[in-house]
Amino acid sequence: MDSAERIFAVEVVRVLQGAGHEAVFAGGCVRDELLGLTPDDYDVATSAMPGQVQSLFPRSLAVGASFGVIDVIRKSPSGYLKVQVATFRNDGPYLDGRRPAGVVFSSAREDALRRDFTINGMFLDPVSGRLLDFVGGQADLARRVLRAIGDADQRFAEDRLRLLRAVRMASRFDMEICPETATAVRRHASAIVVVSAERIAEELRKMLKGSRRSRATRLMAEMGLLDRVLPEAEALLAQPESLDQTLATLDRLGPEAGAIPALAVLLEGMDPAGAIPLAARLRFANQERDLLRWLLAQGRCLAESPGMRPSQLYPVLAHAGGPDLLAISRARMPGDGGVEHAARLLAEVPRETLAPVPWVTGNDLIAMGLKPCPAMKDLLAGLLADQMDGALANREAAHAEASARIKKL
Question: Residue 106 and residue 188: Cα distance in Å, rounded?
Answer without folding.
Answer: 29
